[in-house]
Amino acid sequence: MARDKIYLEEEFPSPLLQLWHNFRHSPVVMIGFGCFIFLCVLAIFSPIISPYSPINNHLDHLLLPPAWHEDGDVSFLLGTDNLGRDMLSRLMHGASLTFGLSFVVVIISLVVGVFIGSLSALTKGLKSSFLNHFLDVILSIPSLLLAIVIVAILGPGLNNTLWAIVMVLIPQFIHITRNAVEEEFQKDYVLASRLDGASSIRILSYSIFPNIIEKLISQATLAQSAAILDIATLGFLGLGAPIPMPEWGAMLANGIDLFYIAPWTVYLPGLAILFSVVATNLVGEGMRHAIKQRKVN
Amino acid sequence: MLIFTLRRLSLFVFTLLLLTLLSFSLSFLFPGDQVTNISGQLNASPEHLEMVAAQYGKHESIFIQYWRYLTHLFQGDFGISMASQLPISEEVLNHLPATIELSSVALLIAMLVGIPIGFIAAIHHRKVTDNIILSFAMIGYSIPIFWLGLLAILIFSIQLGWLPSAGQISLVYEIEQRTGFQFFDILLSDSPYKWQAFQNASAHILLPACVVALAPATIFIRLARTAMLNVLETHYIKAAMAKGLNYRQIIFRHGIRNSLVGVIRDVGLQFANLVTLAMVTEVIFSWPGIGSWLIESIYQRDYTAIQGGLLALSSFIFIVHILTDFIYASLNPLAREVHHGSR
Predict the structure, then answer these.
(1) A258, B27, B164, B214 — which has fewest CB within 10 A?
(2) Which CATH number fits domain B92-336: 3.10.20.30, 1.10.3720.10, 3.40.50.2300, 3.40.910.10?
(3) Average pLDDT of span B71-87
(4) Distance between CA A79 and CA A51 in Å, rounded?
């Protein structure tokens, strides 16, 4: 029988793996993580698993209440809206619009922000100071106001709001990357590889990024919960996804007029937004807690 | 303290300059012709357009254009709104006080509710009370504001009928505008129904302010909790314990005072977030503030209004930042010396 390990070797898991070990100890966080994965699956496979098309009208079933109501119909589990569209299918498709797109938005702004942030951490002096203050200005403008200004430039529509939110999120990532990189640069292991003759770019990619990635991910979860709320808010205000699209915020705006006769058209999209934001926040919270524990050990 | 003030003020001026630079560059990015946007008239005569272009130096280099833009701003001239044909500065002065009122009442509610709850959570650290408060804070932080506003209207205005759902004050009361701030105007007016009007205005502000306050209150809960936990671990608390003070005395004499200082520093940072929430809430509650005005301007493609609104709202937020910095520095001598204003 072959034995892989003859010697007792001490293993050092990578920072990401250590994070995972700390992360999975809290049951509440794992429930949140489960919900997060569920939403991801829903966002990807919603066209396959949803019972009806999100824009298909069932004209003989207008404003049907959810199935648990005495007038409900089990074939429309969560009821229908004023045009007879199935709420369940719309909510499922909305997962890929609101939740899935927020994921994409965060990834794009993460990549751009980390790139600019690490470049700015390597520069010093006037340029860096100017960028610093410029970022402070942008960060203190309310995010929605900035998004509104960018939407005003690009014109309303789902695509344009996504770009607006990407641009709103980028400064945070620049800020956190620059601070984290500068902090790491002070440490001894970076000095060691610098003495070995490594260039700044090499130090950045081999020594620093593996050590700051957890911070970036935890910032990304924060940014994603903000992005979900922003997409939904802009959709609600009529600046984002147009009304026929099953985006959660736009669905809610569509249901306002019927709030009193058909409250489920407003409750359900709101609950969906709340659910996805809570799941994202739980994951982020667990991540930050795990990072703190790793620092303590 | 003088040096601190000077540093802070110079940073403030610098920040405002950057902001005007941002707003100046926006006029190139907005769709449509720049000069038409500034003039505020859709079908302006060529002579009028030529006059506006000459005023803003549109035929000269970009630096001169920026300089002209700045001088116009300093004279209080933000351009003319395309939708209402009024000067933007007048529109901003009409709408900003309502937003300031709403957000300061909301901030007050958030602090009065959030900070004590945070202290309670810290005192019961890692117990059932702490967990309940923290999970409540998580939900309050995640709830979409427009949904919360709609639910609040449905429950408190429609079903229970306790509070009015829209507007700043009932139309029955005629209040002469003097300062623009509703409450001051009411108190200054010599109407015989002053107190009824005051009560009515308070009833109107309560619901939107509570809706705006929920998310910041949950953030204050967390801030106050962390600040109190940090204070309870310091040496002077240990010294106080060694002196024989009981737990209640320690919390009331040392804990609350020292942790409040830490919380106040972050109040300013929360303000931008609070204004964002207030903007959406204004739309739902038909509050005549600058947020609903700005969103209305987008529908009407009133670009000069958006530019002016951005400038006004952001400088208001910067002023609040600076004020909280000063309050923090005057409360905490350590802050004046270590970091300076520049960072």
Answers:
(1) A258
(2) 1.10.3720.10
(3) 78
(4) 13
The count of structural domains within chain A is 1
Q: What is the pLDDT of residues B238-282, one digit of tens each?
A: 888 888 888 888 888 888 888 888 788 788 778 888 888 898 899
Interface contact flag, B31 A249, Cβ < 8 Å: no
User: Least CB-CB distance to A281: which of B142, B144, B279?
Assistant: B142
A116-143 pLDDT, tens per residue?
888 888 877 777 777 777 777 777 777 8
The predicted complex's ipTM stands at: 0.82
Q: What is the mean pLDDT of chain B?
A: 82
Cα–Cα dist B37/B101, whole Å: 31
Top residue of B298, B306, B319 to mutate, by most chain A CBs within 10 Å, is: B298
The reply to whether the predicted model has a pTM over 0.90 is: no
DSSP calls for B150-217: HHHIIIIIIIS--S--SSSS-TTS----SSS-HHHHHHH---TTHHHHHHHHHHHHHHHHHHHHHHHH
Task: List the domain range (segments joined by +) for residue A242.
Answer: 37-296
Q: How far is C-alpha A295 from the geometric centre of its chain's CA atoms?
A: 25
